[in-house]
Structures are given as structure tokens and as C-alpha cells.
Amino acid sequence: MNNGLSIPTLPDSPTSGGEALTDGVRHALAVTRRGCEELIPEADWAQKLSRAERTGTPLRIKLGLDPTAPDIHIGHTVVLNKMRQLQDLGHTVIFLIGDFTSLIGDPSGRNSTRPPLTPEQIKANAETYYKQASLVLDPAKTEIRYNSEWSLPLGSMGMIQLAAKYTVARMMERNDFHQRFTAGTPISVHEFLYPLMQGYDSVALKSDLELGGTDQKFNLLMGRHLQAEYGQEPQCILTMPLLEGLDGVDKMSKSKNNYIGITEDANTMFAKVLSISDELMWRWYTLLSFQSMGAIEALQREVAGGRNPKDAKVMLAKEITARFHSAAAAEAAEQDFINRSKGGVPVEIPEVSLTGAPLGIAALLKSAGLAPSSSEANRLIDGGGVRVDGSVLSDKGLKLSAGTYVVQVGKRKFARVTLG
Q1: What's the whole-model pTM score?
Q2: Which CATH number fits domain 351-419: 3.20.20.30, 3.10.180.10, 3.40.1440.10, 3.10.290.10?
Q3: Annotated binding residue at 254?
Q4: What is the C-alpha to C-alpha distance for residues 234 and 225, in angstroms, rounded to an integer?
Q5: d(CA 302, CA 287)
Q6: Rounded mean pLDDT of 207-219?
């Protein structure tokens, strides 16, 4: 898509202003570029970094998130990680909660109108968003804003004036709008307001850099356009790739069940990281690890030289688990995984009390929450996926008498069932 921008490339040594890049600016550029999809325009960002270093004035770095769901997974943290890296360089991070834009509904990547959230849904989701994001960002160095602060006072007259600053023809260059229009799929007029309002956020916050996923590029460029319209220096934009999920194929998504929620327990989180492929591991290292690229590349060379790739995967699993829990929890999760891999029982498993002895095994699995139904329980037994006190079951007609049993389904589901 032609976004109407001339994007200069970064010269080898000087910025576009002619000044040589210092080592500090080169380092900041390397941190910015790490894992990113696009940095637009890169020469302008180098110039902003040079000015910030020269004047001691931090740059303003913005990330806007609509609280469309109460929980986030580690795929969402790819952009948050980049914010933290830039935050650690001394710049101001603005965590913008789109409580106003959520009322419109972001049409990005949609082939139909996105239903807007109610104010009650937005409030409930926003309450947990920042708490979870703070597991990555430094809360003491983060500015939290809500775009209703300036969007509501804009009023109808201000909205009309804002809408006059962009054309319908340019709006229709956006892929999802163009495809829906070509297909005859309805586009509501209010959907045009979303990119305008997101762009106006950059004006209100005087943003120097805005981050987002690759699917947000049009909205981020809108911010540059509107800042120029309002007489501000246009922001640069940084797009980050969408993280592939556990399957290594589709982007991480709860609907595809290939995700790791950042509020999942430490043992589950650790085990899920270890389940990814060796190839995907290195992409996750780049996008999720806080280790330097030099350290990651050295580790890659060790693995290429014969070191077991599982060692590197364990290091990544411990780093991610420690970030969302603690170093001690990550160590315990590693021991739990080792124990499970040897056929042992985890240290902590759910305790379940049932009545009705003697009870059929399928009914017990269903009642203990280890299988969704008796038929699924029978299928698991047929597949050799059920153990009681360490022994694999094959008899679907088995009835357990009163007592306490350690029941295992698959590799990860355990329960200590007391049957009375």
C-alpha cells in the first residue's frame, strides 16, 4: 500500500542533520531495531535520539492498547518488551489505555464491523490491563493515560474539524477498508473515526515514537500525518511482528489455544515454553528475552557447535517464568518438569474429594475435572493416556473403591482424588 510517505534510510555515520552518530546513539538504534519489522523513518529516529542525548530531554514513546479483553498473553508482551528496552535507555514511556477508542471498535484486520465495547466492559478490562503490563514495564517510569482525557472534550465541532484533515480516498487505501468495499461488505462511517482518533492521541501526547503491531501500521502513520497537520514534529513509528504461538505456525491466540497467558501458573508456563520447536526458540529469544543479542548469538554458536538445544530452551523458559513469577518459582518449575519427565508426580496437585464409591473410572475423571465428558474419558483410556497411582489403565469398566488415588491424564493433568 502506498502510504504517501518518503522514507529515508539511515546513513552509515551521520544523521540526516549532518551530525555524526555517537556510540550512545548507535547503541540506542541497535536496541530499537532489535526484532522490529519496520522503523519509519529511521533517519528521523536517529536525529531524535541525537537531540535527546545532546539536550538531556527524554523522548516520549507511546503505546496505545484498547482493553478489548481482560487478560494478555506473552504475544502481547513483544511490544511491551520493546517499550521496556527503550524505557531502560531513559526515555518516557506512555501506556495509553484506549477507553474512548474502545467505544468505536478497531477495524484493523477485520472483514466486518467490530462490535464496540460497553463502558462497563472497558472499565473492567482496563483495571487488569496495566497491572499485567507492569510485569514487563517499570511502573515507576511509566506514564499512564486514558484517551478519553482529550477525546471527550473534543466535542462534535472538534470531531468535524479533525475529520476535515484526512480524505476518504486516503482512508480507502487501508487494506481492510479496501477489501470490504470491493467485496460489498458494509463499512460503517464511525469506523473511519478510529484511525483519526488514534492519530489524534499522538497529537495530544506530543509523541516522538509510537509502537504497534504490523497490523497497526495505517493507524500509526495517521499519527504522523495529523501531527504535521497540527504543526508538530511528526512521530516515528516502530512496528513489531506478531509472535507465532506454541505451534510455530499461527500467531499466538487464545482462540487457537497456542498461547501462554502471563497469569498462568509457573509450572505450566515453564512447560509450555519447553514445548516449542528448536527453530522457534531463537525467534522467541529475539522478541521475548532481555538478554543482549551478543549473548543470544553466542548461545546459538554453542548449540551449532554441539551443545544440547534443550539447555538453551530451559534458559529461556526460566527467564520468562521468572519475569512473571520469580526466580525461585522458575527454579521450582524446572524441578517440577524434571520430575514429570521421569514419570513422577508434581509437588503441588489439585486435591479433589468425591463420593459414590465404588465409582466408575470414566465418571471419576469427569467429576474430578480431568475430562470434559465420560465419552472423552473413555477415549483417553483407550489411548493409554490415563494413569492411577502411576499405572496405565486399559479397563474402561474399572470401578474404584473408597480411598485416595493420584490420577493423571496426559502429561500435565494431575489430581489427588479422595473417594468416599
Answers
A1: 0.71
A2: 3.10.290.10
A3: yes
A4: 7
A5: 20
A6: 89
